[in-house]
Structures are given as C-alpha cells and as structure tokens.
Amino acid sequence: MNYHIITLGCPKNTVDSEGMGTILAARGHRPVAQPEDADVLIVNTCGFLAAARQEALDVLRDLGARKRPGQRLIAAGCMVESHASLVQSVAGVDATLSTRRWPRIGDLFEEPLTERGNGQHRQSCQQSQQGHGAENHTLAGADWRTASFRRAGTPPSAYLKISDGCSLRCSFCLIPTIKGAMRSKPPDDIVREAQELTAQGVQEIVLVAQHLTDYGRDLGFGKDGLATLLERLGAELPPDRWLRLMYAYPQSVTPRLIETMARLPQICHYLDMPLQHAHPDVLCRMHRPSCLDHTRQIVGDLRQAMPDIALRSTFMVGFPGETEQEFHALLDFLSEMQFDRVGVFHYSQEHGTPAATAPHQVPPRTIERRWHRAMRHQQPIALERNRRWQGHHLDVLVEGQGMTDDGRSLFVGRSFREAPEVDGQVLVWGQAEVGSRVRVRITQATAYDLWGEPVADGESLLTLPARAGVGVGAG
Ligand code: SF4
Predict the structure, then answer these.
(1) Is the CATH number 3.80.30.20 carried by domain 156-387?
(2) 49, 82, 168, 179: which to mutate for ligand 1, most atoms within 8 A of CB?
(3) Distance of alpha carbon 444 from its chain centroid, rounded?
(4) Is the Cβ–Cβ distance between 188 and 91 less than 8 Å?
(5) What torsion do the CA atoms of 43, 46, 47, 48 make, to the nearest 10 degrees?
(6) In the CATH hierarchy, which top-level class contains the domain 393-466?
(7) I want to staple 249 with a disulfide (CB 3.0 to 4.6 A). Which of 64, 91, 211, 352 is the partner?
(8) How many angstroms is it from 367 CA to the middle of ligand 1?
(9) Is 210 in the pocket of ligand 1 (CB under 6 A)?
(10) Coil, helix or strand for 83?
(11) In 295-334, which positions are buried (b, 16+ CB within 10 angstroms) versus exposed (e)?
(12) Rounded distance, CA 406 to CA 410, Å?
C-alpha cells in the first residue's frame, strides 16, 4: 500500500515516524508525497500543549473531510495517549495508535478493519491498562527500544532517540502522564543503530530524549550513564561524524559529561539545556531545581572546557503567579548568561497538571507581551554571539543547494553551532554537494543566520579565540 505520513511536534516524534517508515518499508509499503496518492494517511500527533493539540485536530479534521472512499486515516502519537476520546471523535479517523505502540503500525495496515454502525472503521492500539509504569514493551515482536531503523535515502542528519518518557514532575508538564516514566534504550542497540546510520552515509546523529542526562538510570548506570554511552559511541563511530546532544537537564550535567564532550572528536560543542525560568520562586513553583548558582557553575564549566560551545536554552513566560519582578529576573538572567540561542514559550494551562489549578493565572495578553519582550531582549544577544564568528572559519554540513533570482549559486547548511530545525543556518555563496562538509569563512551575521564563502584550499583554519567563548565565569 502507499502511505503518507505527517509528523507534528518535536524531533522525538520525527524519530518515531522514521521508525514507522522502516517497519512499513520492510512490509513492502511505500511512502508518497501527496495525501491524495496514499491508501493510508498517518498523522503522528503532539499532545504537549494546547496549541499543538489544536494543530493536530485541524490536520486530522482536514484529512478526514478530504479523504476519498477506501482511504484510511490513522492517528498516532502523544495526543492519542493524552486525549484518546477526542482524537477518536474526529470524523474520518479509522484507527488510533498510541505512543510506544507505533511499532504495530504494520498490523494496522494489514489487519482487517471492523465496521462500526456509523460507517467509520475503528481500530485502536492503546497502552495496556496496567498504566505507563507497568507496561511491557514487547509489542508483538516489535519493541520500541530495540527497533533498528534503516532510512530510505541518506540525509546528512538523523535523530536517534536514546530514551523515552520522563521520571521528573515539573508542575506544568504533561509528558510524564503521556509517556510514563523514563526508559532507556539499551546501549548495544543505540550503538548498533548509530553504526547503521553512519554506514548509510548519515553525517550527523542528533541524540534526543526528554532529557538525555538521565540516560541509563533505570538500567542501573548511575549519574554518568550518558557519558558512558558517549564513550562507547565515540569508540565505535568514525571520528569525522557529528554527535549532537539535545535536551540536558541542568542539574544532571556532570563534570564527567563535560569532560567527555570536550574530549571526543565526534561530539559537537553544542548543548540544548532547557531552563524554563530564572527566578528561584518560579522554579520552585515549577517543581524544578531553583539553585541558579549551580546553573551558572554548569554554564561556566561548559564554556571553560569548550570555549567555542554554542548553548541553547528554552524559557517559559507567564507561569502562574509570575510577577513583573520575576519576569525581569528572567530578562536579567538572559543578559548575564549570553546564550547563543533562546526559545521562549507561552505558558499553557494543561488540564491535569498541578500548575493548571494554581492561583494567579497570568492573563493571556500579559503572557503575549512578555513573550515579545523576552524575544526582543534576546535578539541583540544572539546577534552578538553570531558576530563573534565573523572572519572565522566553520565547517558546514551542506543540506541544500539553490540559486538567487539573479542567478548566483548558494548553498545552505549548518555548522556544529546549529541544530536541525530549531536553530539558524549558514548560507554560503557557491556550489557544494548535499551531505558534504565545506569549510566556510563567515563574512556576515544576523541574529539567526550566518553568511559566508568557501575557504580556498590550503587556507589555514582560524578558530574562535578561546576567550571569546567565555561569557560567564565559573572558575
Ligand atoms: S523534565 Fe520536566 S518539562 Fe521536561 S519532560 Fe520531564 S517533566 Fe516535562
């Protein structure tokens, strides 16, 4: 059968969609670019925030209304877990597949559909009634933790999920409810999957999880499970491939992890470390670690060990009870920390979380204003961080080739400083093959992107001066 898949939400969903594609390819099914050419439509939903759920519903309703007779529509992913009845009520949805059950996607293609009284087909593949914590992951021979994925084609970059779920309980977050406790993929499986990806030509592997830094605790690896895993990957993978770490929990960044990141040639000097807020009272109400000095120490240690490191963080504005003074503390912290990149989220009142019923909910207009203020505040900081690279060289992984209106060739890619999908890009005059690495001299910076030109053969590498990377002092 032909299928068309739409992936919503975060990179972890992208990994699951790729896993579904692998399973479907093994069973002889083919992806198609247009929904109208598909026998089966799959929407891999995100249920994390109200806006994401609305987007998922809009997509499902649209496909449900447009689908032709005989086409089947499958809703998969987080929203199926958190809002099953709402998803099932969308006209035209034939089957649902909850998160962690996606390895059964092939079964949904092949099992006969049951006819319901209203003419809609309904199948469901939900979590066991035992609840998240007690779920057995062996799913009719397909275990989400050990499944290995061969990708069609060889894109230069691939995500690799090393764990799923979260054992923490931030008061605004539904993920532990949706996904259950954190479970790690065994290291042998991760290494094998990473080797398969590199053998297929993948140049950059982005390790993802709710937060990587708890990796292996459930397997008894202790606080340095991630560093141990990275050591293994470093030993097994070619030295010229990139490994990128996305989502570190600040309190779990250990000295050994920092030392490992600095030492292994494959690991990008890049870390995405969501902090959510910078006022201790707000952090307490969020049920997150509130010691900002510890965060400062970690940022300082990272920059001391890797002066060129690019640090990304995300923050939430409008958390219940956030005062103007607390919001100012967040802006001051952004000025102090000089993060290379910052994402700012509006607080979203998620039913079922402690924060949803907390007093002093912030009015939406105030949240919106604070969002704009935080974004404006970060812009000159991001610009300044990018400007430090003017005149210096960066190796760029080429992702696309194009041409301007006036006929000039241009290629686009990313250096170690930019993660796929969330950060800016490096735009370079000239031509280069997608998937290749080109050394580029940076000629111009904006708050988001860098511009440059290829470095001539034999020109020496100009790296960023060590001091320029040290934005905050730690030690
Ligand atoms: S660390 Fe907090 S915000 Fe992140 S997934 Fe876990 S509960 Fe949610």
Answers:
(1) yes
(2) 168
(3) 28
(4) no
(5) 180
(6) mainly beta
(7) 211
(8) 21
(9) yes
(10) coil
(11) bbbbbbbbbbbbbbbbbbbbbbbbbbebeeebbebbbebb
(12) 11
Atom of ligand 1 nearest to the CA of 167: 6
Q: Which atom of ligand 1 is nearest to the CA of 288?
A: 2
Which numbered atom of ligand 1 lies nearest the CA of 166? 6
Q: pLDDT 10s per residue in the chain (475 long)?
A: 899 999 888 777 777 787 788 778 878 888 998 888 999 999 988 876 777 888 888 999 999 888 888 888 999 888 887 777 788 888 888 888 876 667 678 878 876 655 443 334 455 554 433 333 222 222 333 444 434 433 434 578 999 999 988 999 999 998 888 888 999 999 999 999 999 999 999 999 999 998 899 999 999 999 999 999 999 999 999 999 999 999 899 889 999 999 999 999 999 999 999 999 999 999 999 999 999 999 999 999 999 999 999 999 999 999 999 999 999 999 999 999 999 999 999 998 888 899 999 999 999 999 999 999 999 999 999 999 999 999 999 999 999 888 777 788 889 999 999 998 889 899 999 999 999 999 999 999 999 899 999 997 655 544 554 333 333 322 2
Domain residue limits, the chain = 2-126, 156-387, 393-466
* Distance between CA atoms of residues 30 and 39, nearest Å: 10
Residue with tokens 């924060």: 355
* Residue tagged 């065994």 (tokens): 186
Going from the Cα of 274 to the center of ligand 1, the distance in angstroms, rounded, reads 9
- Separation of alpha carbons 166 and 177, rounded Å: 9
CA distance 81 to 20: 17
Is residue 182 lining ligand 1, measured as CB closer than 6 Å? no
CATH of domain 2-126: 3.40.50.12160
Ligand 1 centroid vs 259 CA: distance in angstroms? 25
Beta-sheet pairing, 163-164 with 183-184: antiparallel
